[in-house]
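Form P-L/3: holo structure prediction, ligand NAP.
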Amino acid sequence: MTSGMDNLRYTKLPLNNGSGEIPTLGFGTLIPDPNDTKRATKVALEVGFRQLDSAERYRNEVQVGEAMQEVFSGGTIRRQEVFLGTKLWNNNHRPERVKPAFEASLKRLHLDYADLYLVHTPYAFQAGDEQDPRDGNGNVIYDDGVTLYDTWRAMEGLVDDGRCKAIGLSDVNLEQLKEIVRLARIKPAVVQVESHPYLPQWDLLDFCQKNGIVLLAFAALGHSFEPRLLDDPVITAIAMRLNKTPAQVLLAWALQRGTALLTTSKTPSRIRENFDISTLPQEAMVEIREKIKTRYRFNKVVETGIPGFIPRGR
Ligand SMILES: NC(=O)c1ccc[n+]([C@@H]2O[C@H](COP(=O)([O-])OP(=O)(O)OC[C@H]3O[C@@H](n4cnc5c(N)ncnc54)[C@H](OP(=O)(O)O)[C@@H]3O)[C@@H](O)[C@H]2O)c1
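OUTPUT (holo model):
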């Protein structure tokens, strides 16, 4: 289905640490198969997405990098037009590990700078090269010798060095965010958390907006898990009425309430559909906020630091 003509899909939000703006409609690259990841990332750039999200934990930076290189070498899209973010994993929270981890990500991505670097979760795991360190009983080994603020100071150093334009946090709650904002020399520019109509996080959004921080909402379509947000009767009724798809309604809602977002698909027709969005009437925004009562968090990563959407063993 096609949308009307407006500029919603090209919205950008300013970043507080002087590093420019973030295109709000973002493409997430957490796709299980590496060949799909590369193909989908290329399609995403070709249909118009200008913000990409990767992570060392996804083990896909090489494929995302190759996709970008191939598209850039085609000559129609330049590196400077694309906003690329990646993330520091939990086994690299010790300050002395932060810069080497960041440099290794850039190398895998074939880039000489990143637009955004996030601390993937507030949980420090045992320092070392194992991303999923476990004891004999299968329990994660945490590292209580490093605080989130210790890690944050090393992140600030990356901005000073100039190869990382902006820094932020992910999978934090409001209290953790407030603490870093209070202590930081360079405030987080972006906070990436799960958010959609079943987990609107209005308090966090309010705090972010008052402090010039962009909330980057992941699982904008509810990861297409049960309970299926894409089949929610409020969403499907609005979609029908406006001649849009449920995904287009959910993505427009996220941008119109002032967040940036990440959505993911390995399917070219859906990638195109997800970029082809336009502004919802105000009544639809109110309806989604007031009529949807379901509350659900799909990703438990915020409770343990263990990624919910990445199969173990990867
Ligand atoms: N910070 C964190 O801890 C964290 C955690 C999770 C995710 N993330 C990031 O956020 C990104 C987005 O998260 P997500 O994967 O949950 O995204 P999502 O967009 O909510 O869900 C993706 C799922 O929805 C399906 N889908 C996509 N477009 C659709 C459409 N138009 N109609 C119907 N189904 C559609 C996809 O299927 P097909 O692929 O089969 O088309 C896929 O199964 C990830 O890639 C990652 O970059 C971050």
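COMMENT: The pocket of NAP is lined by residues 28-30, 53, 170-171, 192, 218-224, 230, 245, 247, 262-267, 270, 273-274, 299, 301, 309 (CB under 6 Å).
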